[in-house]
Amino acid sequence: MGDGFFTGYRSNVVQPDEVLIGLYIPKTSVNQFIAAFKQARRREDDMAIVNAAFNITFRKGTDVVEQAHLSFGGMAPTTVMAKKTGVALLGKKWDCKLIEVVNDLLAEELPLSPSAPGGMIPYRRSLALSLFFKAYLEISDNLTRTVPGHEPVDDRERSGAEIFYTLVPKSAQIFEQVSNDQSATDPIRRPQVHTSAYKQATGEATYCDDIPKYCDELYLALVTSTKAHAKILSIDAAEALSMAGVRRFFSAADLTDEQNQWGPVVENEYVFWKDVVTSQGLIIGAIVADNQVIAQKAARAVKIVYEEISSPIVTLEDAIQHKSFFPGYPKYMIKGNIDEGFAQAYRIVEGDCRLGGQEHFYLETHTCLAVPRDSDEIELFTATQHPSAVQQFVSRALDIPSCKVFSRVKRLGGGFGGKEFRSVLLAVPVALAAHRMGRPVRCVLDRDEDMVITGTRHPFYISYKVGVDENGRILAADFKAYNNAGCSMDLSFSVMDRAMFHISNAYDIPNLRVEGWVCKTNIPSNTAFRGFGTPQAMLATETMMRHVARSLNRDYLDLVELNMCESGYVTHYKQQIENCNLQKCWSELIKSSDLKARRTEVDQFNQQHRWRKRGISVVPTMYAIGFDAIHMNQSGALVHVYQDGTVLLTHGGVEMGQGIHTKMIQIAASVLKVPVDIIHISETATATIPNTPPTAASLGSDLNGMAVLNACEIINDRLRPYKKQFPDKDWNTWITKAYFDRVSLSVVGFYATPDVHFDRSTNTGKPFTYFVYGAACSEVEIDCLTGDHQVIRTDIVMDIGSSLNPAIDIGQIEGAFMQGYGLFTLEESVYSPDGTLLSRGPGAYKIPAFGDIPGEFNVSLLTGAPNPRAVYSSKAVGEPPLFFAASIFFAIREAIGAARKEQNLNSDFNLVSPATVARIRMACQDHITNKFSETTAGSFVPWNVMP
User: Residue limits of the CO dehydrogenase flavoprotein C-terminal domain (predicted)?
Assistant: First the structure.
C-alpha cells in the first residue's frame, strides 16, 4: 500500500463499491533488512502507543544505505512515513554517527501538539527515536555477521534491540499439612475445590443477568449527567417518550426529597439528581422500555439543558489549591511528641508519594432485576456485596417496610468493594420502576456506563517528614494524607481512616502524627476497593523508608529490620500488637527467595547491559483485620437439617469468587462431622439472614464462619442425646430419631466479634481483632528505551494462621497480588480537564493479562502460626496480599535508578504510581528524552488529566 491509502483515522481510499482482493508483499533481498517494533501499555492484546517499521537496503556487500523507508504509527491520525529522514540516510554509513543525525531529523519530522489525542507527548516523541535506535542495533548486529569490516556494536549496547517474550511459567505453593490426629474425612485445612469451580469454568454458573427473562419484563436505561459542575435548567423526555416501545420516564419528581436522598453513612447523594450536578455520570433519570436497545436509544434522546457553574476540580492538586475539602477535615491521629522526636534526630528527610485510582473492572458489571410480588412485596436480584443496604434503601424509596423487600444474591462476578454500596445506585431506580409499573424490570450496565457511573479506588497524595538517628532508627514521622473522594462522601472518610490507621505499615514509630484530608472534586464518587486505603498509605511509608536509606547511604533492608514492629508494640491508635509474626515472615522470605545471591546477580546483569536493567526489592506488610465501625462486626447463619440428613446452610456472606461458600461448607461439615457433599448453600438473602454487614474488609469467613460454627454446635447439642444413646448408628439415624421426637433441626447462629471497641473522639481503642503479616520479594527487568518491563520472579511468605482451605487462600493471594500489580504499574484512570472520563472500556483501560504474571511465582503460607481470634485458628486473606505487588513497583524503581546511574543522574527521582511504560521510560532520562524540553527531571504532571 503506497502513500495516500489511509485518508484518516480508520478510513482509507477504498470506495463503497470496491473490494480489496489482495496484498502483494515482496521477499526481502540479501542486502535488505526489516525491523519492526510496537510499544503498548500492555504487551498482550493491546493497541500500540507508538509502533514503527524500518525497511533498510544497503549497497551490495557494504553497510552504506541505498534505500530507507521509516514508517511510524501513533504519531499522527494515520501511519506516517518519515520521508525526509529516509532521504537523509541515503549514502550514509550505518554507524553510531548516524544516530544523532536521525534523532534530530525525526524530532523535527514527527512533531506532536501538546493537545494531541492520546497525550503522553514527550514519551511518544522519545519512543519514536528509541524505536529507531532499537532498529539500528538489530540491523547493525545483522551487518556484523554479513558485511566484512562493519564495526560491531559494543556488547553492553546490544541488549537495546531485544524485546520481551513471555517466560516459561514456574510456580510453587507451600502450605502446612493437616496434623496426624485430624480425621481423614475432616475437610478443614485441606485444599478443596471451589464448589462452583466447574460450573464457572464451563459457563454454567448462573449470575444475575442469566436469570431467564419474564414474559412481561421491561428494561431500564439510565440518563446520566454530561457536565461536571452545572445547574440543571430543564429536563425534557418528550422525544424519548414518543418512541415506540418506551413506557415511562422516572426522575426526582417521582420521589419525595426524603425518598430521593441516600448515602452509605452521610446522605449527601441522590437516587435522581436535580437542580445541580457535581460530576459527570450522575443519574438524573431512567427510561423504561420494552427492551434494552429501545431503552438505551430513548435515554440518549432525553434533553437536559445545563448552565455551567464553574470550571470543575478534577485532581487532588486542584482540590488542595482551591481548599476543596469535605467538612470535618483535617482529622488527626497522634502518638508521642513529634517535635521532641525531630529535635533529637540525626537526619530529617522530607518527600511525598502519589498514587492514582483504580477501576474495579469486575467481570460482571452492576446488574439488577426487580420483580413485584403480591401484597406490595418486591423481590430484588442484585449484583451486590451488601444485600441489606439494597433492602434498606429500596424500602425507603418505595415507602414499604423492609420485611416486604427481599434482596437476593446467588453469586457475583467479582466485587472488590465496588459493589458494597454503589449497587444501590442501580437497585433503587430499577425497584422503583418495577413497583410503580407492576412489571419485572431489569438493567445491566454496559462496561463504559459502569465505569462512568460507579467510581474507582481513591487517588492519594501523601507527604512525609521523618527524623531518624545515625543508625536509621525512626524517631518521629509526620504525614499529611489527601484522598480524592469525588463528588460525594460515600465511604471516603472510612477509606481515609483506614489509611491513617495503616500509615506506619510494619514499623515501630515512637512519635507519629498523621493528618488526613478528604478532598471534594467533580468526578464520580470514589468508593471502597480491596485494601480500602491501606495500599496507598503503605506505599507512602515504604517510599519514605527507601528515601531515608538513600539519605543515609544505607541498605534499606537494614532499616526495615531495625524498625520492624514486634509483639507488644502499641500503635498510634493505642492498640497493642499481639502474636506478631512479622519478623518470622520476613526472615523466612529473605531465605527462601535467596535474596542476597540474587542481588549480586542483578548488579552483575546491570553492569553488563546498558539498555536493560534489573531491580529486586522486598516489602513487608502488617494489615489490621476488622470493621473499625464496631457495630458491623456481626453476622448470622441459618442451618436446616432435613429428614434425609441433607443440610441447607445460609449465612450473611456473599459469594463473589473468593470461595466463602466453600469455606462455610467445610466448617459445617467439620463441626457436624458429615461429608461436604450433603451440605448445600443456595444463595444469600435478607429473607433468611437479616441485618448483615457487607461482605467486605476481608471479614467474610471470620464473621460468617463463627456464625455457622455457632449454629452447627447447637445442632450437635440437640443431637447429643441420640449420639449417646445410639453410638453405633450414623448421622441419618440420629436425624430421624430427633425428628420423631419433635426436636427442631433448624437453628439460627450468630456471632459478634468480642473485645473490640474504638472511641473516635480520641482515636483510641481496639478497633481490630488481629493483624495479618507477610512479606514479598520481586525481581523485574525493564527496557530503558521503551519503558516496558517484565516480572521475572516473585516470592511471597504470608501469615494467614491455620488456613481453612490452602487452595482457595493461595488463589486469593495470587489474585490479590495481580490486582495490586495492576494498581502499581498498569491501570490508569484518565480524565479530561472538564471531568470527562477518557479511559472508559477495555480499549483504553488496561488490566493485567496472562503474560504479566511473574515468570516464577512462589507463595508460601507461614506454618505453626495459629490465630486464636478467628474460626479454626484461621486468618483473613482477601485484602492484605494486594500490597505485596508494591515489591514490583520498588523493583522497577531500583532498575530505573541503575539506568539513571549510567547518566550520572540523581537517584532521588519522582516515580508516580502507577509506574506505566511512559513513566518508566521518561524516568530513565538519557540523550533521547533530553531532546524534548517538556522533560524535566523530578517534575510532576498530574497522572490523570489529559488534554
Answer: 35-139
In this prediction, residue 178 carries a pLDDT of: 86
**Do residues 369 and 481 lie in contact, with contact meaning Cβ atoms separated by under 8 Å?**
no
Strand stretches in 470-602, DSSP E: 474-486, 512-520
Q: Cβ contacts of residue 88 below 8 Å, gap of 6+? A: 101, 102, 105
Helices (H), 863-924: 886-902, 917-923
pLDDT value of residue 198: 96
CA torsion, ordered 759, 763, 769, 771, to nearest 10 deg = 180
pLDDT digits (tens, 9 = 90+) for 699-750: 999 999 999 999 999 999 999 999 999 999 999 999 999 999 999 999 999 9
**Contact status, residue 489 vs residue 542, Cβ threshold 8 Å:** no
Q: Which residue has cell 474507582?
A: 456
The alpha carbon of residue 360 and the mean position of all alpha carbons in its chain are separated, in whole angstroms, by 6
- Would you state the cell numbers that stand for residue 147, as one nine-digit string? 558485511
Residue 295: in which H helix or E strand, if any? helix 292-301
CA distance 245 to 295: 8
DSSP structural state of residue 786: T
Q: Are 620 and 560 in contact (CB under 8 A)?
A: yes
Pairwise CA distance, residues 133 & 521, whole Å: 43
Q: Is the dihedral of CA 863, 868, 869, 872 positive or negative?
A: positive
Residue type, 189: R
Q: Which residues contact 667 (CB under 8 A, 6 or more apart)?
A: 188, 705, 708, 709, 712, 804, 871, 872
Q: Is residue 493 within a helix (H) or strand (E), and if so which, with residue range? A: helix 492-501
Spatial CB neighbours of 814, under 8 Å, sequence gap ≥ 6: 857, 859
SS3 800: coil
Q: What's the Cα-to-Cα distance from 108 to each of 82, 103, 126, 199, 475, rounded to whole Å? A: 10, 9, 12, 57, 53
Q: 876: burial class by Cβ within 10 Å (0-12, 13-18, 19+)?
A: buried
Whether the CB-CB separation of 427 and 397 falls below 8 Å is answered with: no
Report phi then psi at 9, rounded to 5.
-65, 120
Q: 355 near 543, Cβ under 8 Å?
A: no
Q: Other C-beta atoms within 10 Å of 713: how many?
A: 14
Residue ranges, the chain, pLDDT below 70 = 1-2, 933-947
Grid coordinates given for 282 = 450522575
3-state secondary structure of 686: coil
Cell matching residue 763: 482515636
Cis amide prior to 26 (ω within 30 degrees): no
- Closest of 287, 286, 284, 321 to residue 306, by C-alpha: 284
How far apart (Å, rounded) are the C-alpha atoms in residues 277 and 306? 9
Please tell me the predicted confidence (pLDDT) of residue 936. Answer: 41
Radius of gyration of the chain (CA): 30
Count of residues in the chain? 947
* 879 in catalytic set: yes
Asked if omega into 675 is within 30° of 0 (cis), the reply is no
User: What SS3 state is found at 488?
Assistant: coil
Q: Which three cell numbers stand for residue 654?
A: 456473599
For residues 472 and 562, the answer to whether their CB atoms sit within 8 Å is yes
- Kindly tell me the burial class for residue 750, based on how many C-beta atoms sit within 10 Å of its own C-beta (0-12, 13-18, 19 or more): middle
Q: How far apart are CA 484 and CA 147, in angstroms?
A: 59
CB atoms < 10 A from the CB of 517, how many? 21
Cα separation, 124 vs 105, whole angstroms:
15
Stretch (H or E) spanning 600: helix 595-608
* Residue 695, phi then psi, degrees to nearest 5: -80, 95
C-alpha to C-alpha distance for 514 and 511, rounded to whole angstroms: 10
Here the cell at position 895 is: 532498575
Distance CA 17, CA 580 (A): 74
| CB of 584 closer than 8 Å to CB of 561 | no
Query: Which of 826-841 are b and which e, b meaning 16 or more Cβ less than 10 Å from the residue's Cβ?
Result: bbbbbbbeebbbbbbe
Report strand pairing: 789-799 vs 770-783: antiparallel
